[in-house]
Specification:
Strand content: 5-15%
Helix content: 40-55%
Radius of gyration: 24 Å
Structural class: alpha+beta
Number of strands: 11
Bound molecules: flavin-adenine dinucleotide
Number of helices: 20
Shape: globular
């Protein structure tokens, strides 16, 4: 006999079946501000679909049933395949069907990247493993499009809205996805240390066949249809297009070794792979592999920042929702001043990241403008560094708002907390981003001027902001001890751009609180340290309003 279940009291309800977009005024305003107001209804419809209980359940299920490596068939022949739970396939089907992977390339528009950024941020609230192949496909398209004579037939497949998981030659499929292989055992950031060799099959040159021998230590989403892979060719480190199947429809030699046992990102497969006389086609020129693959890196790094902003928003929304329903000491948590401070601080943090990411998205859309090109160049590593770096600390605090329930795997935060550090590590870890920020200023001196113009647009409203910007611009002009100061400067640029957007566009209460808490006091190590006079209710409503 089990004891009768006592009445369940004072537990908050599941936060599901709500519109992820319209309940997020910070994102609604950012979408309009950055030029995509006409997409409001489309993104609102997407937010409604993604916020369903079914979507939340699919995200949980896909992460509770990690993919399984199938190296051999039952007769001992190599398979080198990965089997996924049906929930993964369903999520992928919906993600691709919404065009969230390559929408801006299949349907170019003046604010296509802004609209996609908003939609992709909403997807990040639901599930992050699926974003790995989607992001790599988004990033690969512009690189392949430069060589239409060699890769043109792949483009319609990458732009397709049909997810086709069959393990078969891409030419027989309705849609295809891309991965990438750079990281080797002896070095990931320092890709020039790559040892994988590429030997020309006959003549050398772009689009021609080479044979690759070596390995990759991290090789995510190995069920993708093709990969951009770095290898040492006779002319130096080069980028290769490595399809899963050969032109004659037989399987290419990608010998999967094992799947990584990861902290989080459990729905997605990350493998180790060996190449043995593996077929690949040269992308770009021999010796220009880093430049070629970094074209893809610009987009994947942007996506890392988008995804971290989405992750933080979902966790902050869960915290706010819980505090609105849970009582302690006779009062709702949300009505207790100290908790209001914590929630408002978390909401402010989310608002600032949404502002930075969406401003950067505008730069992706305005590449015909030289200033925006320079802004994109510098703000991509800035946003990748700062937004991704803040996710673990923000999400840890949201977990605490839920108390013990926050730490339980059945709840919404635990999985997202394990996910949180990843965006900061892959696609260029924190230090690499900060070194890239220095490089952006060193290579193109006009970058400082363009940043100055952006920041100066918000001057004259607040003395603290004006001083912060003036000091930053002086500091950026001094290259002494650049590497030692790289994190300091990158963080300051992020805070300055976030402040600039909030000051120019409001809301006023958030802008003032941000200036006082971030520019004067520095980014808080723990949340809940806003000054007593702030309009905490307004700030909280910016991140979850019904
Ligand atoms: C789940 C997961 C999936 C992944 N999937 C892929 C994939 O599909 N394809 C792929 O190619 N890679 C993938 N990676 C690899 C990832 O991109 C690398 O791990 C990352 O780039 C860091 O490389 P590393 O691990 O070799 O570390 P290192 O390069 O050894 O770096 C270690 C630390 O040193 C720092 N560092 C390096 N150089 C400097 C310097 N000059 N100054 C100061 N600090 C420095 C780095 O910032 C980092 O903090 C994946 C990683 C993970 C965790």
């Amino acid at each position: 006999m089990t004891a009768p279940t006592p009445e369940v009291a004072n537990q908050s309800s599941d936060l599901v079946d709500y519109n992820l977009f319209t309940t997020n005024p910070a994102l609604v305003d950012a979408l309009a501000r950055e030029g995509s107001a006409s997409d409001h209804d489309r993104i609102a419809a997407l937010g409604e679909r993604l916020g369903s209980a079914e979507m939340f359940a699919l995200g949980e299920t896909a992460n509770r049933h990690p993919p399984i490596l199938k190296l051999f068939d039952r007769f001992g022949a190599r398979r080198d395949e990965v089997e996924f739970h049906p929930a993964w396939h369903e999520l992928m089907r919906r993600l691709v069907g919404e065009g969230l992977h390559t929408g801006p390339w299949s349907e170019p528009a003046s604010a296509a990247h802004v609209a996609r950024a908003a939609g992709y941020m909403l997807w990040a609230e639901i599930e992050n493993g699926t974003q790995c192949p989607a992001t790599m496909t988004y990033g690969a398209v512009p690189t392949l499009a430069r060589q239409p004579e060699d890769f043109g037939e792949w483009l319609p497949l990458l732009l397709s809205r049909e997810y086709d998981p069959r393990f078969t030659a891409a030419r027989d499929k309705k849609g295809a996805l891309m991965g990438m292989g750079m990281t080797e055992k002896q070095g990931g950031s320092d890709v020039r240390s790559n040892t994988t060799r590429a030997v020309p099959a006959a003549a050398r040159g772009p689009g021609l066949e080479y044979r690759l021998t070596g390995h990759k230590w991290f090789f995510s989403a190995p069920m993708c249809d093709a990969f951009l892979v770095l290898a040492q060719a006779p002319g130096g480190l080069s980028c290769f297009f490595v399809p899963r199947f050969l032109p004659d429809r037989t399987v290419n030699t990608l010998l999967l070794q094992r799947l990584k046992d990861k902290l989080g990102n459990h729905s997605n497969a990350s493998s180790e792979v060996v190449f043995e006389d593996t077929y690949g086609l040269l992308v770009g020129e021999e010796g220009r592999g880093v430049q070629t693959i970094l074209e893809m890196g610009v987009f994947t790094r942007f996506d890392n920042a988008i995804a971290s902003a989405g992750l933080m928003r979902q966790c902050a929304a869960q915290a706010i929702h819980h505090a609105r329903q849970r009582k302690a000491f006779g009062r709702l948590l949300v009505d207790q001043p100290l908790m209001r401070n914590v929630l408002a601080d978390l909401a402010l943090e989310c608002e600032s990241h949404i502002a930075l990411v969406m401003r950067l998205a505008r730069a992706f859309d305005a590449q015909e403008d030289e200033s925006e090109t320079l802004l994109r160049r510098v703000l991509t590593p800035v946003a990748k560094y700062w937004v991704c770096k803040r996710a673990p600390v923000v999400i840890a605090e949201t977990m605490e708002v839920l108390g013990g329930n926050g730490y339980i795997e059945e709840g919404p935060i635990a999985r997202r907390f394990r996910e949180a550090p990843l965006n900061s590590i892959w696609e260029g870890s924190g230090n690499i981003m900060c070194l890239d920020v220095l490089r952006a200023f060193a290579r193109e001196p006009r970058t400082r001027e363009v940043l100055s113009v952006l920041l100066s647009g918000s001057k004259g409203r607040d003395a603290c902001y004006d001083r912060f910007v003036d000091t930053l611009l002086v500091e950026l002009g001094d290259a002494t001890d650049g590497e030692m100061r790289a994190r300091y400067l990158t963080q300051k640029i992020a805070l300055a751009v976030q402040a600039a957007v909030l000051l120019a566009h409001g809301p006023e209460s958030s802008a003032q609180a941000f200036l006082a808490s971030r520019l004067t006091a520095g980014a808080p190590a723990a949340f809940g340290t806003l000054s007593a006079g702030v309009d905490s209710g307004a700030m909280i409503d910016r991140i979850l309003r019904f």
